[in-house]
Amino acid sequence: MSALTYNAITAGLFIGIVTAFVVMVVSAIAVIVRWKTPDRRRHAVRLLIALAAIPCLIGLQQALLWLVFLPSLGRQQMAEVNAARAEYLAQTSNTHVGDPVPQFSLTTAEGDEFSLPEDGKVVLINFFATWCGPCQLELPHIERIWQANKNNEHFRLLVIGREETGDSVREYREKNGFTFPIAADPDRSVYSLFAKQSIPRTLVVAPDGRIVYSKLGFNEDDLNELNAVLQEQFAALR
Question: How do the domains of the chain map onto residue ranges?
């Protein structure tokens, strides 16, 4: 519902409430003045109708506000936010959904080599920094995804610290009790393959080496989509 429509309906209801109030007052006075005449019944009925109409009209206005207009406004605002996020993601990204993943190699904190592309694997990549507030909120969810899928032979995950050192990402992971694979990208050489600026960033690479999911920032509503994409990719490998 648009604000214009809501305002028009609300104005009509307000007029109805004012009219009912005027009728109530006039009828109450008429009942008192004509108490000893047969007309008092007619005025009393009109008074009762006005008394019932006022709370009904107020209730209708409140129901319209809370059950129709505000939810509609919330959906509209969320759509605008998501559109702005998508536009900013496109502007700041060097790779997009559908693109082949750039080739790169990094050494993890454990000393293992992590390379992409890797055929036949579903790969989750997350770029973060130890000072990044939204990253702190997102990484516990990344840890849960890792715990749920780490034994899946078709799954790989790497959390990459942009402009971090091996020591800083290792200490950060230990301090927070995370267990996911982590690596440092001190000179942004890997990050720059994917984006120009802004973290956190989360991407999913399909077994054919193409990017099938890319998000910027952290929003809990994105987690359902992320998990759905992962499960869809796993299902395709069965």
Answer: 3-92, 104-237
Instruction: Give the residue among 231, 227, 215, 222 at the shortest CA–CA distance from 126.
Output: 215
CA pair distance 75, 7, nearest whole angstrom: 18
Note the pLDDT tens digit of each residue in 116-143: 987 789 999 999 999 999 999 999 999 9
Tokens of 171: 């200490």
User: Strands, E, within the chain: which ranges?
Assistant: 104-107, 113-116, 122-128, 155-162, 182-185, 201-205, 211-216
* pLDDT of res. 225: 95
3-state secondary structure of 73: helix
Give which of 139, 145, 141, 138 is closest to 123, Cα–Cα.
145
**What DSSP string describes 20-43?**
HHHHHHHHHHHHHHTTTSTHHHHH
pLDDT recorded at residue 15: 93
- Tell me the C-alpha distance between 158 and 114, whole Å: 8
CB 131 within 8 A of CB 162: no
Query: Which position has the token pair 């047969």?
Result: 38
Give how far Cα 211 sits from Cα of 34, 150, 175, 192, Å.
82, 20, 31, 16
- Position 148 scores a pLDDT of 96
Dihedral class, residue 98 (left if φ above 0, else alpha if ψ from -120 to 50, else beta): left
Q: Does CATH number 1.10.3720.10 belong to domain 104-237? A: no
What are the pLDDT digits (tens) for 12-21? 999 999 999 9
